């Protein structure tokens, strides 16, 4: 077993990053796992010409003072490139990446009733144990239905 955590968060979009930040702040031993190579969730995966948010800022940003205090959006409805830059800025301010395992797709999760923990496995064979699992996969993720 390579890791034993209090909480494992799956997904590096807005909800996953927020959960990582708050749980870490509360003292939990927490890691975020994401299949992508960078923070951003849907904004990491989908950045095509014309892609932008459909909710105006500040509704589409973190309500964490050390993030919003100094960040300035260039548009009311920012595009995907600005969202990617925003996630890089968030990472610089909150140092999220130190607790993220990128390029790590979870392919198996099994709950051990007797021991009361989750055992998860990544596509590359890496295994991790966690007491709690938060699946912050967002609405744009592809469903994975196990056999």
Automatic annotation (TrEMBL):
The keyword Oxidoreductase applies. Its cofactor is FAD. Pfam families: NAD_binding_8 (PF13450). The keyword NADP applies. Gene3D superfamilies: FAD/NAD(P)-binding domain. Keywords: FAD, Flavoprotein, Monooxygenase, NADP, Oxidoreductase. GO terms for molecular function: monooxygenase activity. Belongs to the FAD-binding monooxygenase family. This is FAD/NAD(P)-binding domain-containing protein. It comes from marine metagenome.
């Amino acid at each position: 077993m390579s890791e034993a955590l209090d909480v494992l968060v799956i997904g590096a979009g807005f909800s996953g990053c927020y959960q990582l930040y708050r749980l870490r702040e509360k003292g939990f031993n927490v890691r975020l796992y994401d299949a992508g190579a960078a923070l951003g969730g849907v904004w990491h995966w989908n950045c095509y010409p014309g892609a932008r948010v459909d909710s105006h800022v500040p509704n589409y940003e973190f309500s964490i003072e050390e993030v919003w205090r100094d960040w300035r959006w260039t548009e009311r409805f920012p595009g995907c490139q600005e969202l990617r830059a925003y996630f890089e800025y968030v990472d610089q301010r909150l140092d999220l990446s130190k607790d993220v395992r990128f390029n790590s797709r979870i392919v198996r999760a099994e709950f051990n009733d007797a021991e009361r923990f989750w055992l998860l496995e990544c596509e590359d064979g890496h295994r991790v144990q966690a007491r709690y699992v938060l699946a912050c996969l967002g609405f744009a993720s592809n469903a994975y239905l196990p056999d």
